Amino acid sequence: MLRFAPSPTGDMHIGNLRAAIFNYIIALQKKDTFLLRIEDTDIERNIEGKEKDIMFLLTLFGIKWDKFIFQSENFPKHRQLAEYLISKNKAFYCYCTKGFLDKKREEAKEQKRAFRYDDSWAELEKDTNKNPVIRLRGASSDISFKDSIKGELTFKNDEIDSFVIIKENGIPTYNFACAIDDMLFDIDCIIRGEDHVSNTPKQILVHRGLDYNKDIEFAHLPIILNDEGKKMSKRDSASSVQWLLDSGYLPQAILNYLVLLGNKTPCEVFTLKECVEWFRLENVAKAPAKFDINKLKFLNREHFKLLNEQDLAVLLGYKDSSIGALAKIYLQEASTLNELRDKIDRIFAKKSLIIQDEFKAEFGDEVVILQQEILSLENVEKLSYDEFKDILIKATNLKGKKFFKPLRFLLSGSDHGPEICDLFAVVKYYLKDIVRS
Ligand code: GLU
């Protein structure tokens, strides 16, 4: 079984979505079950109802899960297994207070050595502290695992001291709950962000404590960097999946981009279904990848081209498929749904409302003359662009830019853009609506 295990503590980051996509692709390749597990162990930071956003986004990206659980449903099992580990002397109650541990941390810092928990401290404050935590005994030997992206990784035993598995309030820690649930659900392959590499030996230690020896495949995905070469964080708006969607990037283009990023793929533009044919974790580069919004824009335009005109029209808020055709003409200069919508809305806007002062001063009279002439034409939809143009030139006597600039403005609401003859082929069906003042 594969799983995607988001925490319901904030907006979905593109790194999380990337992990979800990769897990889902592998589940499809292996024809295996895909679990969506909401990791709600951080009671204070959980956001009520966040799982609905997560489910909505995954669905939008075409990711379907077969099973769904809240990690908290398993809290009783987590506690039970912690008790079991205590009974086997693999875990123990630790009564140390925060004050005591802070002091020890401070001492380690002063002596310029890494802080390590010492098991002999466990009961020093037993008489005064009524709320002990449970710790799993640290590693007695080195822990190694094979990562499909990073290769063989080894953690020295002294790097993994006894760590908390159940907090004072009885809630399991992320590492413990995650390791137990991966065991209970028989997870075969874990794909997640690189920030979890250092958690993996702890989770393996939990498994070993319970004599669970399944050989799980791990793959830790390199972080995604911003323009400045720093890890993309909440401060980079493009790190938020919702922000990208709100800015008019298509889910299929975002998905394409996240699979392409730092990966060896047979082509640049593809769909989820196509990735399933060739995706291999081993082809993902070890090095962090830089987020390139221009590449995403390119892919967005490519996916607009793949959409049929009716679907594109609907996405832009219009019913008629010819609006989809019109939008495709604008792909030379617009990359997002919002930019396309702006172009189309300008075409249909009342021209008197959007004419700029400067343009009005230079071409205002010609706009009015042409407008009246166009509105008086009959059966425009039967005309070719050349016929339309010749009739207007003859009727108005306008020439050169005094003719073409106002005409372009009337047909598109803008003084620059695609070839007028390409636009005319579509807008001629709506001409009376478009040319109104
Ligand atoms: N809840 C963790 C996160 O959102 C999941 C890590 C994992 O996949 O094990 O980062």
From TrEMBL:
It is found in: Cytoplasm. Keywords: Aminoacyl-tRNA synthetase, ATP-binding, Cytoplasm, Ligase, Nucleotide-binding, Protein biosynthesis. It catalyses: tRNA(Glu) + L-glutamate + ATP = L-glutamyl-tRNA(Glu) + AMP + diphosphate. Its EC number is 6.1.1.17. A motif ('KMSKS' region) lies at residues 231-235. InterPro entries: aa-tRNA-synth_I_cd-bd, aa-tRNA-synth_I_codon-bd_sub2, aa-tRNA-synth_I_CS, aa_tRNA-synth_I_cd-bd_sf, Glu-tRNA-ligase_bac/mito, Glu/Gln-tRNA-synth, Glu/Gln-tRNA-synth_Ib_cat-dom, GluQ/Sye. Coiled coil: none annotated. Belongs to the class-I aminoacyl-tRNA synthetase family. Glutamate--tRNA ligase type 1 subfamily. PANTHER family: GLUTAMATE--TRNA LIGASE, GLUTAMATE--TRNA LIGASE, MITOCHONDRIAL-RELATED. Monomer. This is Glutamate--tRNA ligase.
